[in-house]
Amino acid sequence: MSTATINIATATDKEQIIDSLVLAFGADPIERWLYNDPHAYLTNFPIFLEALTARTFETDNAYYIAGYAGSALWLPPDVHLAEEKIIASLEKTIDKQKQNDTMAIMEQMDRYHPHEPHWYLAIIGVDPARQGQGLGLMLLQHTLALSDRDRALAYLESTNPKNISFYEREGFELLGTIQAGDSPPMFPMLRKPR
Hints:
The protein is an alpha+beta fold. It contains seven helices and seven strands.
């Protein structure tokens, strides 16, 4: 496993982090369902990421590692996503025929999201050229240590079934399946503090 420094991202790091996440999610089932055309993905996924991650940067809970090879963007307890911004980005960037299913997915996500204070992993990703070096695990464990310290829950939605076992090894439990229309499934997961 690699040993590298985890850094708190600032506004000047945002572009490099977004670029790294675009690489990391290039084959992600949900993201490529939203943006199945390569040009649409490369053009529009960064717009969505900007909206999704806005509050993580504002609260100093966007982390990166090893020259932007990986990043994990969290929301601390009692801080919520910029939902209006996210919805506006999706309405602007996804095909009209997918918008109803996308809004249905978001409604299901809301039903699984914990109501008690919790750490929320908005997104985590590692550049495919650097995967398998333990960077994702280091990033995940960094904030799980804060969750444990605070005795707070941690919550995420895995957009790729291949990652479920990775999260389960760190104590996350699968809560169910989120899916609408012809979308791939998404998996809400919750972790109790240790």
